[in-house]
DNA sequence: CTGAAAGCGCTAACAA
DNA sequence: TTGTTAGCGCTTTCAG
């Protein structure tokens, strides 16, 4: 039986190794390594022989082995909430671009807003020895990452801060953005404004609610309990919240939507109504311009880029205390936020 | 100097290994391995001692080493065009879910519609020894993957077929979908219909154009050269194409948009016009329902899921000849496609 | 039930 | 310029 055929089945579908190439080219193992990695110190003639052997054998360097030896994987992990959410696509892409510029690959996974799954994913990535980790937290306690960070896994949190540990974070100004949005509605004459947001355990949800309350308070407006609804962002729940706030003797005249999922459903829910209801949403949405939806825009790509750049700066050995970077948001008036309250109100 | 401190710097930020755990627990290396992997044959007492050592040292198994030994990486690669495109988000997420169900992680990268970058990425993933590869081709020649596939990297193409090699592919019915869309416009009275699509080297672009031509021919309608425009899908180019087709003595009365990027720009370009122009777009878009945009919907998530399932079936050792799976598309009438031509036409 | 030894494919260090 | 040796941290094999 031939040498090659005797190899154990588990060997990556029996791919040739540097040893095989060396044998074929009649050179030493290290010479093959030199050629493969473009190191100096190989005669053109030797190099050619090695190259031929590589071609004919279909050799490709096994990076698993390389990684084991070098101690760096040239890959970063990204744990986000849902790759299918239009907010995370551009963010993810931006991280990828930065990673690529640094010669690293991106491994990413969705937590589906489940803290356990977030942890499972993040730790799996650590076990793979990613050089760095970018996390959009689903959970509120990240002490589980402390040993990993101490052991050298650079970690940056995005969109939401880490819970119970001190770590880098890149955030949008949820509080300020939402305060500005609500102030905008107030400036257009509204007094009864509803807030529909994500689950209260999500940092951005409570921050945006805080912004809402701040704007109301600054205008000396009381907030009734029935005007605030936090919870999952599935269409049913949001639709019910909208309906509830618009019913009764004293309905709200305007709505502030806490994120893109809420905005989309709110727009649909409001579409069929007799009297127009003012709306401002957090996050920009594709085609919102055509629908005239006023939004507080945040730059998802900038969020990802900033976080990734910070990560690679850490990987390059820059030592600074952990810091939070907060990116500004922009109010984009497009019509829905400028609808005045009905005269009767 | 202590043992630990003497370790070379490159060792993953000096993380403890099984050897360290073994020393600490006063057991053999293999016993640690058994505990870590939940293998049978360890006394509860020994197990407890090992667990304690693991905790106190903050040990986490190094999967790089494991992979090297086992020959399987439990990861799959996904090469797509642009993670930021709303079409690829759900596709990517679907692949991820299937991978997760099989205990695998997802490494993904964007080719930015550049064939060289596609190849570079795909081969980098092969070097990492991903168990399988899912590729949304940017290029038209995938012979470069042949050695990898022969060497055992299961590969499935999605959205577009592989070029010049025989391989599995999961596609949407671009031809049929676009033929149905154009036939729909014809049924609503249009005779002069424009087609704006992606670059001609992209398979789906030409297939959709073919569907357009087929529908026109079936209705015995001639197609003027100026009614067809293929090219990059950036807003400027598309906007110019729209303007051109709607100018002159005999403008088109309806447009068929070849993909979601084109549709979005076309809708914007048509928004300001005096006379409404009929429009059908390939791909559904968020909020298209509210804007009344008639589309040929394809199921991006199903595309990803189907491809990933096929991939894992191959990884499980199922041997079948490569096949193409074509998923049906759905015409969703919402108004824009049902606008009749102006009486003058 | 437990552990020692070999080796996965590569790179670093050192010889020749 | 080239080759040899010794690991990287783990799993496999096989012997206690």
Name the features:
homodimer, 345 residues, alpha/beta, 6-stranded parallel sheet, 12 strands, 41% helix, disordered N terminus, DNA-binding, DNA-binding (chains A, B), LacI family DNA-binding transcriptional regulator (chains A, B), HTH_LacI (chains A, B), DNA binding (chains A, B), transcription regulation (chains A, B)
Structure description:
Two copies of one chain form a homodimer. With 345 residues, the first copy, chain A, is α/β, with parallel strands linked by helices. In chain A, helix 2 crosses helix 3. Chain A is built from 13 helices and twelve strands. Helices cover 41% and strands 16% of the residues of chain A. Chain A has a six-stranded parallel sheet with strand order 2-1-3-4-5-11, with helices on both faces. Chain A has a six-stranded mixed sheet with strand order 7-6-8-9-10-12, with helices on both faces. At the A-B interface, helix 4, helix 5, strand 2, helix 6 and helix 7 of A face helix 4, helix 5, strand 2, helix 6 and helix 7 of B. Chain B binds a DNA duplex (16 and 16 nucleotides) through helix 1, helix 2 and helix 4. Chains A, B: InterPro entries: HTH_LacI, LacI/GalR-like_sensor, Lambda_DNA-bd_dom_sf, Peripla_BP_I. Chains A, B: One of its GO terms (molecular function) is DNA binding. Chains A, B: This is LacI family DNA-binding transcriptional regulator.
Overall morphology of chain A = elongated
Oligomeric state of the chains present here: homodimer
Q: Which stretches of chain A are low in confidence, meaning pLDDT under 50 for 5 or more residues running? A: 1-11
N/C terminus separation of chain A? 91 Å
What's the order of the H and E elements of chain A?
Answer: HHHHEHEHEHEEHEHEHEHEHEHEE
Report the total helices of chain A.
13
- What is the beta-strand fraction of chain A? 15-25%
Largest sheet of chain A: 6 strands, parallel
Largest interface, with Cβ-Cβ < 8 Å? A-B, 64 and 64 residues
Structure classification of chain A:
alpha/beta
> Which bin fits the share of residues in helices of chain A?
40-55%
The side-by-side strand order for the widest beta sheet of chain A comes to 2-1-3-4-5-11
DSSP strand tally of chain A: 12
What's the Cα radius of gyration of chain A? 27 Å
Q: pLDDT average of chain A, as an integer?
A: 93
GO molecular function, one term (chains A, B): DNA binding
Organism (chains A, B): Streptomyces lateritius
Pfam families (chains A, B): LacI (PF00356), Peripla_BP_3 (PF13377)
Domain HTH lacI-type (chains A, B): 16-70
């Amino acid at each position: 039986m031939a040498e090659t055929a005797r190899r154990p089945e588990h060997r990556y579908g029996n791919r040739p190794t540097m040893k095989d190439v060396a044998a074929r080219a009649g050179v030493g193992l290290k010479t093959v390594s030199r050629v493969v990695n473009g190191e100096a110190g190989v005669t053109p003639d030797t190099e050619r022989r090695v190259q031929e052997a590589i071609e004919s054998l279909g050799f490709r360097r096994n990076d698993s082995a390389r990684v084991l030896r070098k101690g760096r994987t040239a890959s970063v992990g990204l744990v986000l909430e849902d790759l299918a959410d239009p907010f995370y696509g551009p963010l993810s892409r931006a991280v990828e671009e930065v990673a690529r510029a640094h010669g690293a690959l991106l491994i990413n996974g969705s937590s589906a807003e489940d803290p356990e799954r977030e942890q499972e994913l993040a730790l799996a990535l650590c076990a793979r020895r990613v050089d760095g980790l970018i996390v959009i937290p689903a959970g509120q306690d990240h002490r589980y990452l402390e040993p990993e960070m101490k052991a050298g896994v650079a970690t940056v949190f995005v969109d939401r801060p880490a819970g119970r540990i001190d770590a880098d974070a890149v955030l949008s100004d949820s509080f300020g953005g939402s305060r500005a949005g609500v102030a905008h509605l107030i400036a257009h004459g509204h007094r009864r404004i509803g807030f529909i947001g994500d689950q209260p355990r999500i940092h951005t949800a409570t921050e945006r609610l805080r912004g809402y309350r701040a704007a109301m308070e600054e205008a000396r407006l009381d907030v009734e309990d029935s005007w605030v609804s936090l919870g999952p962002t599935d269409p049913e729940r949001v639709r019910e919240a909208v309906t509830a706030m618009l019913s009764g003797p004293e309905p709200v005249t305007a709505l502030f939507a806490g994120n893109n999922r809420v905005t989309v459903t709110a727009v649909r829910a409001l579409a069929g109504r007799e009297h127009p209801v003012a709306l401002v949403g957090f996050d920009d949405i594709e085609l919102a311009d055509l629908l005239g939806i006023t939004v507080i825009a945040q730059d998802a790509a900038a969020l990802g880029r900033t976080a990734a750049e910070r990560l690679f700066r850490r990987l390059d050995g820059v030592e600074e205390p952990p810091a939070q970077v907060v990116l500004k948001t922009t109010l984009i008036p497009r019509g829905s936020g400028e609808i005045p309250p009905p005269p009767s109100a």
